[in-house]
Amino acid sequence: MEVNEVFEKVKNLFVEELGIDAEKVTMEAKLEEDLEIDSLGIVEVVMAFEDEFGIEIDDDELTDVGTVGQAVNLLHSKL
Amino acid sequence: MKTALVTGGSRGIGKAISLSLGKSFNVVVGYSSSKDSAEEVVEDIVKSGGTATAIQIDVKSSESIENAFVTIEEEFDGVDVLVNNAGITKDNILPRLKEDDWNDVIDTNLSGSFKTSQRAIKHMMKNKWGRIVFISSIVGMMGNQGQANYAASKAGLIGLSKSIAKEMGSRNITSNVIAPGYVDTDMTAFLTDEQKNNIIEQLSIKRIGKPEDIANIVSFLTSDESEYITGQVISVDGGITS
């Protein structure tokens, strides 16, 4: 799967799971500051990623994820 | 209509809870071995115009919980209301308490409730609505001779519930504990009349509790009316702890 395909799927999850405006979801967007996702929201997104992509994400891998782009790259590396 | 799962929902307090929730929810009556009793409870709910089904769940087993939830999710949308009621006793005074009996009681009463809640919470988070009720015991706050394992498991539920309340409040999921006192069920059937009279003497309300006394508060705590109550322990005990 290409990076931009992963991005589109990630964007859909943000919009569907968390009700975030689609135009706000860019590769550069910061999860907490720009998208106003709280820590529990990040857990929800991770659980949705795991279901959608059939992968498991360790909590350790999330420590460096602060932007949508970093999340997309993490997922892309696992597929 | 929302769906409620009552673990250990076929007998005693759990049966009364299942019947009471049948007025407001689709009810899934969880049972470990009492299949016939569970089916009778289902029949009673259906006769009263409700929707119910029975399902076998061994809360000690993650696999059994997963299988039960998959089945429930096929029939209903998911579990919106979870009543962690399944519990056992294996009493003995501490110097005689076997490690296996300690582990069995903790695994069922405390870890079983943790596992079931963890499985149920996903759907509740997604829906941004959920109700979790734990059936603890006043013994969890007072201790009791011969019940170190049971008391520890019931005290553990309080910490578990309060933590869930803090974690999940922003998603409109509440978590509360009911701490029953002495209630007339199979679990207290071993008490002699003399022992019962001694208990009644300590109560403000001079009778042993009925399962319905517990079911009534569970109905309230699972309703929309209780949305601002979370992380609480409510004793329903005739005043024994007052």
Overall radius of gyration of chain A = 11 Å
What integer is the average pLDDT of chain B?
A: 96
Major sheet description of chain A: none
Beta-strand percentage range of chain B: 15-25%
End-to-end gap of chain A? 7 Å
Q: Which sequence of SSEs, written as H and E, runs from N to C of chain A?
A: HHH
Through-space gap between termini of chain B: 38 Å
Low-confidence stretches of chain A at least 5 residues in length (pLDDT < 50)?
none
pLDDT averaged over residues of chain A: 88
Question: How many helices of chain B?
Answer: 8
Number of strands of chain B: 7
Largest sheet features of chain B: 7 strands, parallel
Q: Into which percentage range does the β-strand content of chain A fall?
A: under 5%
Low-confidence stretches of chain B: none
Helix content of chain A: 40-55%
Q: What class would the helix/strand composition of chain B place it in?
A: alpha/beta
Order of helices and strands of chain B: EHEHEHEHEHHEHHE
Assign a percent range to the helix content of chain B: 40-55%
Largest interface, and how many residues on either side? Answer: A-B, 5 and 7 residues
What gyration radius of chain B follows from the Cα positions, in whole Å? Answer: 17 Å
**Total DSSP helices of chain A:** 3
Commentary on this structure:
The complex is a heterodimer of chains A (79) and B (242). Chain A is mostly helical. Chain A has helices at residues 3-18, 39-53, 68-78. In chain A, helix 1 (3-18) crosses helix 2 (39-53) and helix 1 packs across helix 3 (68-78). By secondary structure, chain B is α/β, with parallel strands linked by helices. Chain B has 8 helices and 7 strands. Chain B has helices at 12-21, 35-47, 62-75, 99-127, 139-142, 148-168, 193-202, 211-221; strands at 3-6, 26-31, 52-56, 81-84, 130-135, 173-180, 233-236. A 7-stranded parallel beta sheet of chain B has the order 3-2-1-4-5-6-7, sandwiched between helices. In chain B, strand 1, helix 1 and strand 2 (26-31) form a beta-alpha-beta unit. The model of chain B has no long low-confidence stretch (mean pLDDT 96). Chains A and B meet through helix 2 of A and helix 4 of B.
